[in-house]
Structure formats: structure tokens, C-alpha cells
Design goal:
The protein is α/β, with parallel strands linked by helices. The protein contains 13 helices and 12 strands. Bound molecules: nicotinamide-adenine-dinucleotide and 2'deoxy-thymidine-5'-diphospho-alpha-D-glucose.
Length: 352
Amino acid sequence: MTILVTGAAGFIGSNFVLDWLSQSKEDVVSLDLLTYAGNLENLSSLNNNTHHHFVQGNIDDRDLVLNLLKKYRIRAVLNFAAESHVDRSIHQSKDFIETNIVGTYNLLESARSYWNDLDQNLKQDFRFLHISTDEVYGSLNSSDHPSTEKDTYKPNSPYSASKAASDHLVRAWFQTYKLPVFTANSANNYGPYQFPEKLIPLCILNALNGKPLPIYGDGQQIRDWLYVKDHCTAIREILKHGQIGETYNVGGWNEKTNLEVVETLCAILDELKPKSDGKSYAEQITFVKDRPGHDKRYAIDASKLRSEINWQPQESFETGLRKTVLWYLENETWMNHIVSGEYQDWVQKQYS
Ligand code: NAD
Ligand code: DAU
């Protein structure tokens, strides 16, 4: 049997596929449209791996997806494919609606059509795991309890609204058609292969190039940070032990202000790659115009995953961040290939 991973050339998807194939002989079909965020270099270590099959295509394409499901006798679909960057959703939300909402709808319909025709045993074992975000719960005040799976959805950005809509579709396909689904709502991920439009890799790149480290507003917004490999383990465990129809919050128990994140990052860089002038990278921190509708705080209560599935993150923020910085320092070529063309246009549009 085989699993289908969508968005497999992106940040979390590629970490998941690499992690999966390092410990399982079960084949993976990676489906990815290869948008600006998809990068085949993330999967290049699998080029000679006969258990890995890459297909360039859209989750929206029902014929393509149905053919893949049948051809490879897929036993689980893991949907990582999405437009994922909040700032881009503020500039241009159309792709977010098309991929995150319409794309998820079409993927659900392809899965349902395939699942309906499976014989009883295969039908019983089939799973659809949808990867979503803590942003669907909206912004918390500093005294609020971290978001639990029972909390109301209050998305505030075009991105989080599109993810919330996709979560509702997944839920409805379970309630209405009994398609065996789960949803995993995770906190901010960081780690290898993250595209440098997101805070941590952007600041690593800018720090090394002597550029400003842009902090939106006063830098006091709080995010919960999860090392990507911990997220991958959680997804594997949910797939194995999760209860059909349930949602699971995946968090790192690592709430930090953005300023703390960037200061910690600078301290690690000061130690691992000191500047020739002896100054700290922290001197490059620059406060810039705030993100419109910037959510103040996200925090995840991941105790359901701990009590039901016995999962907890293995990395603290400090150990995970150190591994991340080391990875970027050791993978300069990967970074150099990414930061050409479209990336420069984005930086110009967002930060000029
Ligand atoms: P990413 O932007 O790095 O990767 C997304 C991938 O999806 C890219 O490879 C892209 O080419 C592909 N893709 C986009 N549209 C597609 C389409 N229509 N058909 C097929 N492939 C398509 O995103 P990421 O950070 O790896 O996030 C993966 C998933 O996890 C997303 O659903 C995101 O909402 C969710 N998530 C991300 C985080 C985070 O911190 N990065 C946290 C919680 C949840
Ligand atoms: O919470 C989960 C979400 O985390 C995921 O669903 C999204 O896909 C993912 O992109 C991430 O969203 P954020 O908006 O939190 O991530 P980002 O790295 O863009 O920003 C993190 C925080 O840092 C946020 O408060 C905005 C701030 N920031 C970001 C950038 C890019 C800055 O201060 N400066 C910046 O240049």
C-alpha cells in the first residue's frame, strides 16, 4: 500500500516525506503543483529511492487525483498542499481561495469517489488527514487559555479564513458521507527547508547578508513554535492512532514574542558564525510597519494529543532553533538557489 502526500515539495510536506521514508518501506506518492513555495531540491535525496514517486499536479484536478489514488492503491491521503503565507494572502487572496478551499473540496471529492468503490477491508482502513493551523482559532489575549479543539473558529486573515473553510469542508465530508478524516491544527513550524518568506528563515538569511531583520509593529505578538520534525511525528501518530472524525491540536508549548524569537536567533548566530566586526546580529533588528490585522497571540493546548495518542514535542525552542540555524548554515547552496527571481520580487513588494 501507498500514501499520497500533497504539497510534498513544500516546507512541512518535504520534511514529512523524508521522515516517512527514513522509517517505513511503504511507498509515497508526492503530489505538488510546484508553486513558488514548492522546491524539488527539498526531495532530491530521494531521487534514486524506488519507494518515492513524484507527480507535478494540482489537488484541484479531480481526474489526475482519482487516477493516482487508483493506480497506486492509496490507503491514506495527507493534505499539506496550500497557499501558506499570511502576508501574501493580504496582498492577493485569490490563490488562497482556489487552493485552500476549492482545492480541498476537489481533493475530498476525489477521495470520496475512490473510497466509495473500495472493497470492504480497504474501505475500512482508508484515511484522509487534513493539515491545518492554529490560526483558525483567531487571536488570544494574554490571559486566555491556549486554544483547545473545542474552541470556536474566529479566523482573521484571508489565509486563516481559507484554512478555516477547508477544515469545515473536511468535517462536513465526515458528518455527511462518513469519509474517514482527521484534522491536525498545528502551531508555527520552523526547521530545515522553510522558504525564507517566513520569520525565522527570513531573519537567518538577512542576518547573514547584513540586511535589516524586519520586526512588524512592536514585536510583542506571540506565537507558539513547533520544530517541524515534532510535527511530522505527530502526523504519523495521528494517522496510526487517531480517532476518525476528530481534530487534534499540535503545539510546541513554546510561546515566544517575535522579538524574543529574533533575539534568540541572533544570539545563536553570534555564537555559531560571529561577525567579523565583533558586533551582534541583534544590531540589525529593525522595527517596520505592522501587518494589517496582525493577530496578537496564538497558543495551542496540545493535551488531547498527549492524553489520547501519547505524543509530545521532543525539542525545546532553544534546541530546535539551534538545529535550524545549523541546517541553514550548512545548506547555503539550497538558500542561494531559492533567493533568485520571484523571491526578490516578493521582498521588494513586501519590505520596500
Ligand atoms: P509551503 O507553502 O511551504 O508549501 C506548500 C506546498 O503546497 C508547496 O510545495 C506548493 O507548491 C504546494 N501547492 C500549493 N498549491 C497547490 C495545489 N493547488 N496543488 C498541489 N500542490 C500545491 O507550506 P508549509 O509551511 O509546508 O505548510 C503545509 C501545510 O501546513 C499547509 O496546509 C499550511 O496551511 C499548514 N500549516 C503550516 C504551518 C507553518 O508554520 N508553516 C503551521 C500550521 C499549519
Ligand atoms: O500559526 C501557524 C501559522 O504559522 C501557519 O498556519 C502559517 O502557514 C505560517 O506561515 C505561520 O504564520 P505566521 O504569520 O505566524 O508566520 P510568519 O513567519 O509569517 O510570522 C511569524 C510572526 O512574525 C508573525 O507574528 C508576523 C511576524 N513577522 C513576520 C515576518 C515575515 C515579522 O515581524 N516580520 C516579518 O518579516
